[in-house]
Amino acid sequence: MEVRRMKIGIIGLGLIGGSLGLDLRSLGHQVFGVSRKAETCERAMERGAVDDAHTHFGLMQETDVVFVCTPLAVMKSTVTELVPHLFEETVVTDVGSVKGWVVEEIAPLWPNFVGGHPMAGTAESGIEASQRDLFKEAAYVLTPTEQTPLSAVQRVEEIIRPLGTRIYHCQPAEHDRAVAWISHLPVITSASLIAACLHETDPAVFELATALASSGFRDTSRVGGGNPELGVMMARYNKAALVRSLHSYQNVLAQLVEQIEQEDWASLETVLQQTQASRPEFLK
Ligand code: NAP
Questions:
Q1: Are 113 and 92 in contact (CB under 8 A)?
Q2: Which numbered atom of ligand 1 lies nearest the CA of 19?
Q3: Pocket of ligand 1, candidates 10, 11, 13, 16: which has the most ligand atoms within 8 Å of its Cβ, to mutate?
Q4: What separation in angstroms does the CA of 205 have from each of 14, 201, 224, 225, 245?
Q5: How many angstroms does the Cα of residue 125 sit away from the middle of ligand 1?
Q6: What pLDDT is stored for residue 2 in this prediction?
Q7: Is the confidence at residue 150, as pLDDT, over 70?
Q8: CATH 3.40.50.1950 fits 7-170, yes or no
Q9: Three-point CA angle 137, 138, 140, nearest 5°
Q10: CA of residue 229 relative to chain centroid, distance
Q11: Is the CB of 95 under 6 A from ligand 1?
Q12: What is the distance between the alpha carbons of residues 106 and 115, in angstroms, rounded to a whole number?
C-alpha cells in the first residue's frame, strides 16, 4: 500500500500515543510528540516513537493531523491549549475510549475535528508500555457528525488504514452504548467478581481459593484487575450508557439467582444454552 508521507503530531506519549508513533514512523511519516513530562519526551525519542518531542505545543505547527492521546480528564484543556498553535488545515482527532462527551466538548473547539477510538490496548500504561503493531487487526471507530468535514475523515482514514485497522463509522452515542456492553460493563462486573471473593470470611477458605484459582479466574478477573484510573474514567465519562447496561445486568443476575434458588434447572440450562450459542457472535 502506497503511503503519503505526512507530518503527524501526537499529544500524550503513553501506551496509545507511543504505540501510534512507533507504527506511524515505521510507515515513513514524520512524527512530533508533546507530553507533560520532559523525561517522557526523552524516552519517546530514545524508543523511536517520535522524531522529536517537547513539553510545549510549538512542534504542532504545520502538522497535517494531530492525535490527542492524553487521559480523558485533560483532553478538553489540552485541545484548548493546542488550537492557537495549529495551521488552519490541520485535522485534530482523539483516541478516547468515550465519544459522546469528547465530541460534544471538543468539536466546538476546532472545526476539523474527528472523534476516534482504536479498540486496542494492554493492561500497562505509559511510554514504556508502547509497542509496535498494537493496532493491527483491531477495530478503529470514527464518529464523524453532520458537521465533520469529509476531507478530515478521509485524512484520518488515510493514516490509520495502513496500521492494519478495521475502520467503523457510527454516531458518538451509538459508540458509547456499544462499548458500555462489551468494554465498560465487563470492567465493572469483573471488578465486582474480585470484590465479592474478598467477602469470604473464613481465612482458610480464602487462602485455599487463592491457591486454587487458575485459568477460569484469570480470564474472568482480568479486566477488573486493570488500571483503576481507566475504570473510573469510563464510568465518569460514559455514565448513562454504563448505568443502563449495569441495570440490565442486575436483572439478568437476579433472574439467574432466582432460578438457582428455585432449583429451576431447566430454565437455567436454557439461559446457558443461549449464552453458549451467542458468545461467538461477539468474538467473530
Ligand atoms: P497512558 O499510557 O497513561 O498515556 C497517557 C499519557 O498522556 C501519559 O503517558 C502522560 O505522559 C500523558 N499526559 C498526561 N497528562 C497530560 C497532559 N496534561 N498533557 C500532555 N500529556 C499528558 O494512557 P493510555 O492508555 O495511552 O490512554 C490514553 C488515551 O487513550 C485515553 O484517552 C484512553 O481513553 C484512550 N484509550 C486507551 C486504551 C487502553 O486500553 N489503554 C485503549 C483505547 C483508547 P507523561 O508521562 O508526559 O505524563
A1: yes
A2: 26
A3: 16
A4: 40, 8, 22, 21, 33
A5: 8
A6: 80
A7: yes
A8: no
A9: 125
A10: 13
A11: yes
A12: 9
Question: Is 71 close to ligand 1, i.e. is its CB under 6 Å away?
Answer: yes
14 Cβ below 6 A of ligand 1: yes
- Ligand 1 close to Cβ of residue 121 (< 6 A): yes
In the chain, CATH 3.40.50.720 covers 7-170
Cβ contacts of residue 152 below 8 Å, gap of 6+?
A: 91, 112, 113, 114, 144
Nearest CA to ligand 1 atom 35: 96
If you measure from the C-alpha of residue 234 to the centroid of ligand 1, how many angstroms do you get, rounded to a whole number? 13
Over residues 8-55, the pLDDT tens digits come to 999 999 999 999 999 999 999 999 999 999 999 999 999 999 999 999
What architecture is the 174-282 domain classified under in CATH?
Orthogonal Bundle (1.10)
Torsion of the alpha carbons at 41, 125, 17 and 101, rounded to the nearest 10? -120
Examine the pLDDT at 282 and tell me if it is beyond 70: yes
- 241's CB contacts (< 8 A; 6+ apart) are 173, 176, 177, 179, 180, 184
User: Under a CB-based contact definition with an 8 Å cutoff, are residues 94 and 115 in contact?
Assistant: yes
Side-chain-side CA neighbours of residue 93 (13 Å): 32
Is residue 252 helix, strand or coil? helix
- For the whole prediction, is pTM greater than 0.90? yes
CB 24 within 8 A of CB 8: yes
Q: How far is the CA of 250 from the centre of ligand 1 (A)?
A: 32
SS3 228: helix
The segment(s) of the chain belonging to CATH 1.10.3660.10 are: 174-282
